[in-house]
Amino acid sequence: MPEEKWLYITETALAIDNRRDTNIDGEESEIHVVTKFYQHILAMVFAIEEINKNPKILPNITLGFRIYDSYSHSRLTYRTVLDLLFKSHHFIPNYKCGIQENVIGVIGGLSSDTSSCMADILGLYKIPQITYGSFELAVSDQFKFPSFYHMVPNEGLQYEGIIQLLLHFKWSWLHSFLRRTSFNNSAGEEITFNEYGELAAGFDITNMVSFPNTSYLRVKVGRLDPQASPGKELTINEDKIKWHRDLTQVPPLSMCNEMCQPGYGKKKKEGEKFCCYNCVPCPNGMFSNGEGRTFYMETCVTCPGDQYPNKGQDQCIPKIPNFLAFYDTLGIFLTLSALFSSLITVLVLGIFIKHRDTAIVKANNRSLTYILLISLLFCFLCSLMFIGKPNEVTCLLRQIAFAIVFTMSLSCILAKTISVVLAFMATKPGSRMIKWMGKGLGYSIVLSCSNIQAGICVFWLAISPPFPDVDMNSFTDEIVVLCSEGSPTMLYCVLSYMGFLATVSFIVAFLARRLPDSFNEAKFITFSMLVFCSVWLTFVPTYMSTRGKYVVAVEIFSILTSSAGLLACIFFPKCYIILMRPELNTREQLIRKII
Q1: Which of 131, 257, 478, 496 has CA 20 to 30 A from 374's CA?
Q2: Which residues pair with 177 in a beta bridge?
């Protein structure tokens, strides 16, 4: 004997005759036929009969059905669902008495209110509920309603299809129709559901061809497929479209005015319909065009961050990278300046090494002089790290290298200045300062001052190291490729510490400027510190007000200028004596000046 399985259908106002009944509040109400729902019933009955007649579809299984009315009331809906699950004179949930039918599924209502109430109960017992209505997203929640299935695609796809048609024909109003795709299992078509329990299908685009005898024919002219590749969801065969014979233009023009040309955007006409507008030029920084798109764009939009509008404002073109390159005129000039200054420093160092046993070299702390010259050499060379396209290595090292080598130079100058003062004080009878004299004091000052700066730099790298970055907003047509300092506060701490050392060196050297000439390197140090401080005080406002590659150029210029000032003010007078006036570079001459 064939096994019987049952489907249950519930919907609002499915009555097929006029009668009076008592509603849930105990009042009599008249129930009317709703033709649309009655047609749904007839279609369902016909489908079940066809399934039962065909032994190939469900062999040895006979489908039955029962139809319930919810009366558009949630309480009656809940009561009806309990009735079909636990039919008895008294409702006892989870208890079945005298029921022979095997419930395999329930077809919900067309409205979301009825179906959602049913899903609250049916979901507890994992009984599948199928709906043929299109609901809001809340009812499509598969986590809340795991047994809830939609037999129509998502409603949002219809809106997308309408918009695609409007854009395809450049219309403001719609003259075509969207029809749901029909599926037939017997034809071999696969029915699948997406993660929201909705039918994963698209829509056919149908052309309604009318005839003089008022009859019409539906002709499929395209399709909207949500599973197609991006940009190819809509396909239309315009050759199959039969436009109405009374149309003077095909496709018909469905707009108040002509489309805006590239570079122009729409501006609504006051007091006119929403589809009527004027065409005005796009504002600065915006564009409008239709190239590379499936539709023409009449709205002015902003270009991506790495692009900017062309002169006609009808397309975006890539921005040019902005950084100080070695092949730029300014880059070449600064590179040659750094290399020339480095060469001069090497020559000065060579002169001092060659004449290391002369009086003027020995009198000015020979070891600190070598360290200072080597530090100045690295100051000139580290400026080259600021030229070229920034990368992770150069961004990480250039400010750190600059800070440490400059601090070492200033530490040497401070040590030389203190040595001059102590040397003069040690010449006084009974002075105890002589025990502080020697190389150890100078080395200690250089190491301690340099280690403090190194500690600041390590802390900087630990909390927020510099990194490559881009600035797309400073220039309209250029992207500034730069090194972000990570923490501007740490950069200013490094500069402030160097400023502190330079200030201390300037004060000490200024106080010692009137010492005897034989020991007096303080006058040159005073002037060199004056030049150094002037350069870096000018650097700060210039650095803050400059943009693009010129920010880097300002810093390089400050490094080269301040380093050249130290080199020239401290060492060029000594080189002049060594090379041009060797008769003054003797111990006797120095002693004579003291006396």
Answers
A1: 496
A2: 206
User: pLDDT tens for residues 548-575?
Assistant: 889 999 999 999 999 999 999 989 988 9
- CA 423/CA 403 separation, integer angstroms: 30
| The token pair that represents 393 in the structure block | 């290595």
| Distance in angstroms (rounded) separating the CA atoms of residues 518 and 587 | 10
Is the C-alpha dihedral spanning 524, 527, 531, 537 positive or negative? positive
Neighbour count for residue 526 (Cβ, 10 Å): 21
Task: Tabulate helix, strand, coil % of the chain (nearest 5).
Answer: 45, 15, 35
Token digits of residue 406: 């400059």
Alpha-carbon distance values, 161 to 155, 165, 173, 203, 232 (Å): 10, 6, 13, 8, 12
Question: What is the per-residue pLDDT for 388?
Answer: 92
Per-residue model confidence (pLDDT) at position 566: 92
Please report the beta strands in 127-262, taking only residues with DSSP state E, as ranges in sequence order. 129-131, 148-150, 177-180, 203-210, 216-224, 234-236
The CA distance from 551 to 548, in Å, is: 6
**How far from each other are the two terminal CA atoms of the chain, in whole angstroms?**
137
**Does this model's pTM top 0.70?**
no
- Tokens of residue 420, six digits: 């001059």
Share of the chain above pLDDT 70, in %: 75
Q: Do 494 and 403 meet the contact criterion of CB atoms below 8 Å apart?
A: yes
SS3 378: helix
Amino acid at 294: T
How far apart CA 563 and CA 180 sit, in angstroms, is 79
Q: Whose structure tokens read 């401290």?
A: 570
The answer to whether residues 441 and 414 touch, using CB atoms and an 8 Å cutoff, is no
Peptide bond into 252 cis (omega under 30): no
Q: Residue 299: in which H helix or E strand, if any?
A: none
How would DSSP label each residue in 300-347? -EEPPTTEEE-TTSSSEEEPEEE---TTSHHHHHHHHHHHHHHHHHHH
| Of the candidates 214, 264, 265, 204, the residue with the CA atom closest to the CA atom of residue 234 | 204
Residue type, 13: A
Task: Look up residue 144 and give its amino acid.
Answer: K
Which residue from 10, 6, 202, 182 is spatially nearest to 111, judged by alpha carbons? Answer: 10
Using 50, 70 and 90 to split pLDDT, how confident is the model at 432? low
Distances (CA, A) of 120 to 10, 73, 216, 276, 336: 15, 15, 44, 48, 81
The string of pLDDT tens digits covering residues 22-70 is 454 555 555 556 677 778 888 888 888 888 888 888 888 888 888 887 7
pLDDT of residue 165: 79
- The contacts found for 447-455 with CB under 8 angstroms, 24 or more apart, are 448/411, 449/407, 449/410, 449/411, 449/414, 449/501, 450/404, 450/407, 450/408, 450/411, 452/497, 453/403, 453/404, 453/407, 453/494, 453/497, 453/498, 454/404
pLDDT (0 to 100) of residue 329: 92
| SS3 state at 289 | coil
Instruction: State the Cα–Cα distance between residues 309 and 293, nearest whole angstrom.
Output: 17
